[in-house]
């Protein structure tokens, strides 16, 4: 089932990239998708049934809006810190613990943190993320964990678990 799922995903991506439904393009797309599915199918989705659950797509769209909003807020925050004469920064590396269990969920969370200005995921060890943060506003792990992970984790859990 995961080979078929990968084939369909690759074929859809092919058509979205080429925007061409002529016969030669369809043949080449099918061949490329087939070869990719055969070569990489073993290491693809562990549970391909999740791919066909429409509610996950709803949460992906919600997550994208949340992610974009958080990036906009973080951009303004970093711009303020850069342009402020006092340069109000208090950098540090904090250790936060995630509740996500899947590797893909953790990967998306780490990348979301890194792509948000002012934070970067330095290391991930099991469920612990080490995050460099431009302004560590609290020494309480519960508070800074909620500030860093709280905005993304609940949506990623609904998407990937």
How does this model look, in words?
The protein has 161 residues and is mainly α. It has two domains: 2-49; 53-160, no CATH class. The protein is built from five helices and three strands; from the N terminus they run αααβαββα. A three-stranded antiparallel beta sheet has the order 1-3-2, covered by helices on one side. Strand 2 and strand 3 (128-133) form a beta hairpin. Helix 1 packs antiparallel against helix 2 and helix 4 packs across helix 5 (141-160). The chain is elongated.
Give the gist of this structure.
The chain has helices spanning 2-18, 23-40, 54-83, 103-115, 141-160; strands at residues 92-97, 119-125, 128-133.
β-strand number: 3
Assign an overall shape: elongated
Total discrete domains: 2
- Beta percentage is 5-15%
Rg over CA atoms, rounded to whole Å, is 20 Å
Q: What can be said about the biggest beta sheet?
A: 3 strands, antiparallel
Instruction: Provide the spatial order of strands within the biggest beta sheet.
Output: 1-3-2
Helix run count: 5
> What is the terminal separation in angstroms?
19 Å
Sequence of secondary-structure elements: HHHEHEEH
List segments where confidence is low: pLDDT < 50 over at least 5 consecutive residues.
none
What integer is the average pLDDT?
Answer: 86
């Amino acid at each position: 089932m995961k080979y078929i799922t990968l084939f369909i995903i690759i074929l859809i991506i092919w058509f979205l990239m080429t925007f061409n439904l002529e016969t030669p393009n369809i043949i080449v797309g099918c061949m490329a998708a087939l070869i990719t599915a055969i070569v990489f199918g073993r290491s693809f989705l562990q549970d391909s049934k999740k791919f066909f659950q429409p509610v996950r797509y709803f949460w992906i769209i919600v997550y994208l809006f949340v992610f974009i909003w958080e990036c906009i807020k973080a951009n303004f925050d970093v711009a303020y810190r850069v342009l402020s004469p006092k340069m109000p920064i208090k950098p540090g590396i904090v250790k936060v613990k995630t509740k996500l269990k899947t590797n893909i969920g953790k990967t998306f969370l780490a990348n979301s943190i890194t792509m948000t200005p002012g934070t970067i995921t330095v290391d991930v060890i099991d469920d612990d993320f080490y995050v460099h943060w431009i302004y560590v506003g609290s020494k309480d792990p519960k508070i800074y964990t909620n500030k860093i992970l709280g905005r993304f984790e609940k949506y990623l859990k609904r998407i990937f678990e």
